[in-house]
Structure formats: structure tokens, C-alpha cells
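User: Hello, can you help with two protein structures?

Assistant: Certainly.
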Amino acid sequence: MSKAFDRVDHSLLLVKLKHIGLPTSYLKWLSSYILNRQQQVTVLGATSKPLQVASGVPQGSILGPILFLVYSSDILSPCDRGAMYADDLKCYRSINSHDDAHLFQTEINSVSVATENCHLNFNGLKCSVLKITRKKNTVQYPYQLNDTPLPLVSKINDLGVLVTSNLDWSDHTYKICKKANKMLGLLRRCTLEFHNPQTRRLLYLTIVRSSFSYASQLWSPQKVELIQEME
């Protein structure tokens, strides 16, 4: 979704907080926290006039993500199977016939309506269809989002993990190795005068090794050539 955290409607958010059974005293506190906020910008010593914040949740705060989760909790309700992480959303279904595809399109339409009801918008440039299958002949269907055709892609970047249509993790492994090798070279050049090996080790674990451990339970390579590439 596009600028989802900035588009949260304050009145609707308070209605949803009440709907989940939040006590009145908490609702009053959150209402005071959310409503009538102002913001201003200071540049080179000059400060702008305060402007009323009409929507959104405070980003960088502890409550911000929690409030957004409550606000967007019913967006996926029309979808039989789906997942949502912050403002990143996925719907999926097993497609074995044209009727299955038509039903999936109906779910996409319903999710789109639910999103609009929350005053949120999808980022059309980041929306696509990925078929995960090893079949050569699959059901063809012109999926759309808000009357705009959704492109059929062979791979997507899902929260930093490169997922392909055949669930082969070669592309992701090579991408990670290239990134780690680049960061390792940078680390070597920048730590030539570091005499403490513990500091260099900490930097290596933080900058380089973390690339290999992120989501490795999902993409950890099984092919010999990929394991050798990582080593």
C-alpha cells in the first residue's frame, strides 16, 4: 500500500479501537494522543507555521505500528488465504480451474474495496501476480486491480527475499552472495587500522553475516553449487 501509515483516518481508527473492546479510559487517552496533533519544520533556523495533522499515526513511535495493525486488521477478511506484514499484503489461492481464478479475482476486488473503505490505496507499481508452480500449462486469467491489469511476473522481492515461480532459490542465493562480497570488501578497506579483532568480528557479523542468516530457514540452499558459492 502507498503511504499507508500516513493515511490512517483518526476517527475510523478510534471506532475500530472501540470495536475491539478497548476500555473507555484507554480510548480517551488514545484520542488525546492521536487527535489535534500539530507539526512544523525548521530549516536553517527558520521555522514554519504549525499545521494540523489530519491523518496518520506517529511513525517511529511504539504505538504507531500497533495502531496501524488494528486499523488494517479487517482488510484481508474477504480473502480466503492471505498474509499481511505492516503495509505489505499478499493474497493466495490454489488455482485448478477457471472458476478458481474467477473466485480469486472476486477476492481481489473485495480486498480492494476493504482497503478503500480504510482510505488506503494500493501502489499499482508494486502489485503483481506470481504463479508458484512447476506445471507447464496453467490456468490463464487476466487478473486486475481497480480495473488495471496486474502483470504476471516470474519472481518477486518479498520482504528482502527473492521468490521465484518454481521456488528455486538460486537467484536469491547469488544476490545475497554478491551483496555480502561487496560489503566484505568495504569492511576490509575501512578496518585496516582497526587493531581490536573483536570490533572487526562484530562489524562482520552485523554487516556481512546477517545477510546470510536473514530468512535462511526459508531459502537455505540445498544444491552443492549454491553451497559452494556461499562458502
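That covers the first. Now for the second protein you mentioned:
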Amino acid sequence: MAKNKTKKLNKVSTTDKGRIYVSTTFNNTIISATNEKGDTIAWSSAGNMGFKGTRKSTPYAATQAVDKVINKAREVGIKSVEVFIKGPGVGRDASLRAIKNSGLAVSMLADITPIPHNGPRQKKRRRG
């Protein structure tokens, strides 16, 4: 008979400063909250919130994912955040608006979207 395994939760140190990373694509929005050292406190995505298919790429799905991450960050004790946004997508503005309206103090906002300096050849343009 198999033994019951108890999962040990990693204890993240409580701090009042944190970082929120928002990665948006045309199909999904992924949000993760970390402490200052970079240890992940919470993460969520539009797909993780139960949205499937084209509903994942809506602003509403992005705000739901942000709300879940912010609630978890508040439980840990985070009061001010630095926000890093990456990528194009409709969840970009909606997630930023949700973070500002959440009551957390936004100390810094940075756009870390990777911009190619003429890298590999682009995909062919869509017809239509």
C-alpha cells in the first residue's frame, strides 16, 4: 500500500515590496508575482482561470488572472510593486489598469518587450 505523502510548502519570506511580471501574447496573458530576490510568490494565467480558446485573449480574462495574483501577494504582505510588462496583446492595458485599481502602490513601470535588432527573417505576411 502506498504511503501518503505530505507536500512541504516553500516558505517565502514576507516583504512589503514585490514585482509583478505581465507577459501578454495574442492568445494568452501570464502574470507572476515575485519578491525582490525573484522567488515566485504567485502566478496565474487566463487559461489557468478557466478561460479556453478565444476567450483567453480577452481583457476580462487578463483582469481575472491579475486579481488572483494580487490577492495572493496581499496575503504574503506585499504593499508596493514594480510592474514589468512584456509583449503585445489585449491583456496588456487591462492588466495594468487592474493593478493600478487594486490598491497596491506601483513604484515602477517598465516595458521589457524584446525588440529584435534585425534578427532572423520575419514570417510571411498574412493574406487578406
